[in-house]
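Can't attach files on this board, so I'm pasting raw text. These are the components:
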Amino acid sequence: MAHNLVFFYGFAALAVVSTLLVIAQPNPIYSVLLLILSFVALAGLYVMLDAPFVAVTQIIVYAGAIMVLFLFVVMLLNVSHEHAVADNQAASDGGGPTVRWFGAILAGVMAVELVWALNRSRSVGAALAGAERETAWSVEEIGRILFTRYGFAFEATSVLILVAMVGSIALAGRHLSGKKAWRR
Amino acid sequence: MAALNHYLILSGVLFTMGVAGVLLRRNVITMLLSIEVMLNAVNLSFIAFGHFLGSADGQIIVFFVVTVAAAEAAVGLALVIALFRHLETLNPDAFRQLRG
Amino acid sequence: MSVSPTLIAQLAILGFVFFMLLNSAAIMVYVERKVAAKIQQRMGPTLVGPYGMLQPLADIIKLMMKEDLRPKAADAILFTLAPIIAATTAFTAFAVVPFGAATTFWGLLPEPISLQIADINVAVLFVFAITSMGVYGIVLAGWSSNSKYSLLGALRSSAQMISYELSYGLALASVLLLAGSLSLRDIVNAQSGAWLGVIPRWFIFLQPVSFFIFMTAGIAETNRAPFDFPEAEQELVAGYHTEYSSMSFAMFFMAEYINMVTVSAVATDLFLGGWHGPFLPESFGWIWFLLKVSAILFFYVWMRWTLPRYRYDQLMQFGWKALLPLSVVNLLVTAAGVLYFGA
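---
Top answer:
Structure tokens for the assembled complex are below.
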């Protein structure tokens, strides 16, 4: 299946390039949009991995809801001109630029090691060969597992969402009780 | 046919970018975005393992991760807005007075 | 790779859908103007062509001739990208909407193919996902124009679309419970036949509340009157597309009408039995589909010229405090019904 590899490399390249730009370019609004592009590429990979339901959920929840929230905040704070990074040199004693760069380089080294190790060991894929299913998981099957075996975790996440909702309204909406407009 | 290795390598590379983003960028919003990148890299390996093991558990864990990510983004952005109101900046270095 | 007749037929369907969607925007402009004129006891366009039917063509030529302006302070990349996103998402959503029964085109093809571009098993969610992406076109247009009116229009629009998406999704969910499938084709096929030989087995009769919620949320999603806040002329000049001119304006305009067509087509598939109807053989089902979509579109136009615009806070109050609880209750009742009576 040669074209399968072509699709994989296409989506992978799209994801890597857009993610790189998310962290590399200064304007947050472009970062948000490029991250959406990266999510779409990942959704494509999920479809290739026989998980179309997750792919669609990824688009609805991540691209359709979470990223809109980010975009809203970026637009409302209007920090697109990046005056925020001007005081970059206000190095706290917690970690100056040197320490941060060291950490980032370590992360890069870890990634290189991982790539090297995975490239060397053919066994990761080979040991599992034949375990894959022929067809994609249907929504019904996933739903059954989600509401039986993972029922408790599912209920727990609903509590988490409620807590997050109350928390974010309490945090961001505190000043709004008196007056309706944004005051900056 | 792309093998499990391919997906794991991609996931590792994306995760590293997320880590580098959190460490290097001095803008809270971009740092939150980098956290989303890391969560997505993890999601990718969950789905890849789930597919190659013939199990639906990978997909289900991804649903939970997405839920947690939504909660995290909502609270995180609320914090960003509250901090921005007080300090008029998004640079985390300016938030030093938060230490108790 | 050999070129099979099935592949050619599928490409033909793709081209046909694309062409018809483009056309539908033009037709809707004409219908909108004529119906508005009738409601307001005017004549509407009469000069260009018979009964003014070539008016949309004249409009398009006029728009193409105009200069494409861009404000100096606008963000160039996003300003160009926004109408493209709006138009692309509008077209993409229709890709999974079936509009007729499987056919061999009178024996031309070896095996029957379905009249739709792609039959995927998560079609309903796909439409939902693409619709939710449509908000980016509007938000980016508003933000990149660097104009107060545009930004206000965009903020209103995205808040409105996000708020009504919840009710929209829950209304879909109760239909999914009845049909037991996420594929639009399966949902339509679940509605074939009739009760007692007269009443068509359409989901609108089982789910009237759901249909009401779906249409209300659909009007809000497509930013149509009486929920047309993003472009409320009296308050915001023209909302998010204030700064757009020429063809980039036309793209927003087209996207709005195509979104209307898509919502109507999805509503037809979900609630009105798609291409199933009495009197006509299955192979001419697309005529029923066309009639039903036209009826919903006419309803859209009729609404616009009959109802005044709501106030913005009324819209939000209605969405969160009336429509959302109603759809949750409706979903619970449906779930209980499905559990009790069986699907």
